Amino acid sequence: TKEIAQRLQKGEITATDIKEEDRDYFLERKYPAFGNLVPRDVASRNAKQMCDEGRGVGSTGLAVYLDFSDIIKRTSAEAVSQKYGNLFEMYEKITDENPYKLPMRIYPAVHYTMGGLWVDYNLQTTVPGLYATGECNFSDHGANRLGASALMQGLADGYFVIPYTIGDQLAATPPKPVTTDHPAFAEAKAGVQARVEQLLAIKGNRTPDEFHKKLGHLMWEYCGMARNAEGLRYAKAEIAKLRKEFWQDVKVVGNGEEMNQALEKAGRVADFIELGELMVDDALDRNESCGGHFREEYATEDGEAKRDDDHYAYVAAWEYTGENQPERLNKEELVFENVKLTQRSYK
């Protein structure tokens, strides 16, 4: 209950003080067939929902409990330690709480962005000769975001694809001297120099980190694991305001003549703001729930993701059309010959 959660947040009681009948095993309650084995996106979305409802634990209220006591009773602490010993040790060092005796406090966190650069079957981008391998391309991510899939993608691309495809490009383009005489080089260099000078000349009052945290909060709350049109429109307006404030009030110390991490961070945050705007636009444009994209208006009666493959079975490739201009949507239709698209259910 919220009352028990509030007492936990204030430190008046601990997890061990909660009676069994007062515990809410919410994943087992909602998904009896799978329980705690539901995919990551489902578990994470529900954990955040518990906290948003005021039922989170810990001093911030931004956590739910992960209790290992049952499996420790059924096996032993030593058996659990063989699987999770390193994790438990790190947790205890951070929290000063023994996870063998007290439930762990966990909360979802952003650590990857699904999607990335478009590539063909040879892992070549739309720029001839430019290949994107591993995490930076769009190919292998899914809503469940299984552990080690980043490693899997790097291995698959590095071992099984790129060695057999990049050779064609190298064979067709024999080595030749590279110079800086091309007009494209001069244009790119001038653009970078102008951007550096612009960032250094602002001399505002807010650090790049402040803008980064503000953007991160907006994306987490309104374009995260669960989105809706109202929240996305709010985020779109707020990010536009943040972008304007950034170019008027960011403070970048140092100069552009030597390594400058503050300048590098400012440039990256400027890019993140543009990317955040694009992610919001894409989420608003896709009126369905599918994979890691969960729109609350497009859900089943049980509150789960509701697909619309008749209208949205495509890859959205957004095209840059110029500064302060709306992006252009290019659709790459998805054709499935051996796989039948179906509605997910973990009830």
How would you characterize this protein structure?
The protein has a two-stranded antiparallel ribbon. The protein has four domains: 2-106, Flavocytochrome C3, Chain A, domain 1, CATH 3.90.700; 112-172, no CATH class; 181-285, Up-down Bundle (Methane Monooxygenase Hydroxylase, Chain G, domain 1), CATH 1.20.58; 288-347, no CATH class. The radius of gyration is 24 Å and the shape is globular. The two termini are 23 Å apart. It has 347 residues and is mainly alpha-helical. Helix 8 runs antiparallel to helix 9 and helix 8 (208-222) packs parallel to helix 10. Strand 3 (314-319) and strand 4 form a beta hairpin. The mean pLDDT is 91. The chain has helices at residues 2-10, 26-30, 40-52, 69-74, 77-95, 149-172, 183-202, 208-222, 229-249, 261-285, 309-312, and strands at 64-66, 104-106, 314-319, 328-333.
Number of structural domains: 4
Average predicted local confidence, pLDDT: 91
What kind of oligomer do you see?
Answer: single chain
Top-tier CATH class of the largest domain: Alpha Beta
What would you call the structural class?
A: mainly alpha
Largest sheet geometry? 2 strands, antiparallel
Low-confidence stretches: none
Instruction: Give the helix level as a range of percent.
Output: 40-55%
User: How would you spell out the order of helices and strands?
Assistant: HHHEHHEHHHHHHEE
Shape: globular
CATH architecture of the largest domain: Alpha-Beta Complex
According to DSSP, the number of beta strands is 4
Strand order of the largest sheet: 1-2
User: Total helix count?
Assistant: 11
Distance between the termini: 23 Å
Give Rg in angstroms: 24 Å
From the 3D structure, determine the CATH topology of the largest domain.
Flavocytochrome C3, Chain A, domain 1
**Percentage of residues in strands:** 5-15%
